[in-house]
Amino acid sequence: MNFFRTLTTIVILTLAAPLVVADEHQTRPSMSANRTVTFSAEVVAIDHETREVTLAGDDGQTVSFTARDEVRNLAQVEAGDRVFAEMYEEVSISVHANPDNLAPVTAEIAAAERAKANEMPGAAVMDTVVISAVVEDINIENNTFKLKMSDGMVTEFVAQDPENLKRTKVGDLVIIGVSLAFGIVVEHP
User: Fold this and answer.
1) DSSP letter string, 62-118
2) Is the separation of the CB atoms in 44 and 54 below 8 Å?
């Protein structure tokens, strides 16, 4: 099983959805930011009875922890094995015209996969939350705007870029997407 391939497929499918919503001629504000963090380490010690594992990073620093019961197939792991992990985060915010007066909603999709019995330990987890909110008020003088969320709560925010307020209208739909994905795998050298 290739956990990173599973993870990549999940992320691509999830992140493609917001792209369908975006208008390529959009003049309203939008932004997106993402980052990927990778980690690799060597298993320098493992006690299968207590489930205590000690890893040494490429910089030589060590960390010890007790593997939870959910860590499947720990018995396959031995000193000298390599642990590889990758985390991906993305946040996107875009403002869209709302001619149909759509109400705000929140949706979440999550997926997880882990190693089968007798395979080396590994897992991939992905979670995406998409929130829509309706612009309730814009105050150019105070550089603030109010958003109505799906629970009916109205919250005031300060605009990071005041020019964005000029490109937004009361009633517009703000789409906020947050995606997190994590994959980890242990391999024999």
Assistant:
1) EEEEEPPTT-TTGGG--TT-EEEEEEEEEEEEEEE--TT-PPP-EEEEEEEEEPPTT
2) yes
CA diameter of the chain: 65
- The dihedral region occupied by 60, where left means phi > 0, alpha psi between -120 and 50, and beta the remainder, is left
Grade residue 4 by pLDDT with cuts at 50, 70 and 90. Answer: very low
The string of DSSP letters for 11-79 reads: HHHHHHHHHHHS-TT--S-EEEEEEEEEEEEEEEEEETTTTEEEEEETTS-EEEEEPPTT-TTGGG--T
Phi-psi region of 73 (alpha: psi -120 to 50; beta: other; left: phi over 0): left
CA 121 to chain centre: 22
Q: How far apart are CA 166 and CA 155, in angstroms?
A: 19
pTM of the full structure: 0.74
Element (H or E) spanning 5, and its range? helix 3-21
Least confident of 21-25, 50-54, 81-85, 170-174: 21-25
Of 95, 72, 73, 88, residue with least CA distance to 167: 95
Nearest to 67 by CA among 56, 52, 85, 48: 52
